[in-house]
Amino acid sequence: MQLELRHLRALCVIADAGSLSKAAASLGISQPALTAQLHRIESALGGQVFRRSRLGVTPTPFGQFVLTRARSAVHTVDELTAGALPYGGQARVARIGGYANPLLSGLLRRLFDVPGVAITVHTEHSPRLLLDLLASRRLDAATLLDYPGHELPVLPSVGMRPVGMEPVFVAMADNHPLAVKEEVSLAELAGDDWVLSPPDGVGWPECFVTTCRDAGFNPRVPHIMVELQMIRDLIARGHAISPCQATFQASAGIVVRSLAGTPLWVRHLVAWRHDGALAHRAEELALLAADAHREFLAGQPHYTAWQARKGEPAGS
Question: Which of 18, 59, 270, 297 is buried most, with the most CB atoms less than 10 Å from its CB?
Fold first, then answer.
């Protein structure tokens, strides 16, 4: 017998019910039919999933192993299929997505304080994927980012508002030879190893590589990763440098320096579905996101120093 999703779902129902009779009633089949089905499932799996007793059924150690994976599979399929269905009723939870950065965390902190807004959070590395999740009704709103020349497409079902622009800086070890400078040119970093985040579906790291080539070199990139702590460890130990957003925080062993001429920029946006749970509060959502972005940038010394050198007004 080949296992199907309905078999995994039956195992989950049996485990939740604690007895074959209750599970059979829940599934709408007879107890003998469910018992026979369970025997076939266990035979296909090659082990006993449940112990039977007069008090009901309990998972075996092997059964716990199977059930963990069965629940995960059922949940994943349910999420894929149910997420795209039209919403029903008026009261619903707002599903917020975004890249795990200070803009998202600042926006969430503000939304949690807004009366009448119940939210759940979903993070992804790719802004393009987040936009697709919005378009397919799996998210109600999201924080996004893109880059000049690599803008996100405009979709009819999704509203979008720019939150702010920020320059791309470079993070390096505090004992890097160029760390003594307030600003470095990209060309000065031609001999360094870089750690980059993987492609995000919008234009990163392609725009970074193109900018390096314009500066006269192909960047050497031995490290690709998204885990922030691992990136910080590589930088602090002097094994690599990294382009970073202006919201990237300097820490022990790491300094952040601006790039001469500001050759790279990031644009932050907030987006929402026109028929989503936050559509009626879109203006408020945009204002909260912009406020969160300004607040965090204002607390970054490397950013305020860059503003002062460029003569930029505070909060721009």
Answer: 270
Nearest to 188, CA basis, from 204, 205, 209, 170: 170
Q: List the one residue out of 50, 46, 45 whose CA is nearest residue 14.
A: 50
> Which residue(s) pair with 145 in the sheet?
268
Give, for 55, the enclosing helix (H) or strand (E): none
Cβ proximity of 245 and 169 under 8 Å = yes
> How many alpha carbons fall within 13 Å on the CB side of residue 164?
21
pLDDT of residue 315 exceeding 50, the answer is no
Written as one string, the DSSP assignment of 131-154 is HHHHHTTS-SEEEEEEBTTBPPPP
pTM comes to: 0.74
Query: Amino acid identity, residue 64?
Result: Q
Token look-up 């382009």 returns: 243
Helix (H) or strand (E) holding 244: strand 242-245
Q: Quick one: pLDDT band at residue 259, thresholds 50, 70, 90?
A: very high
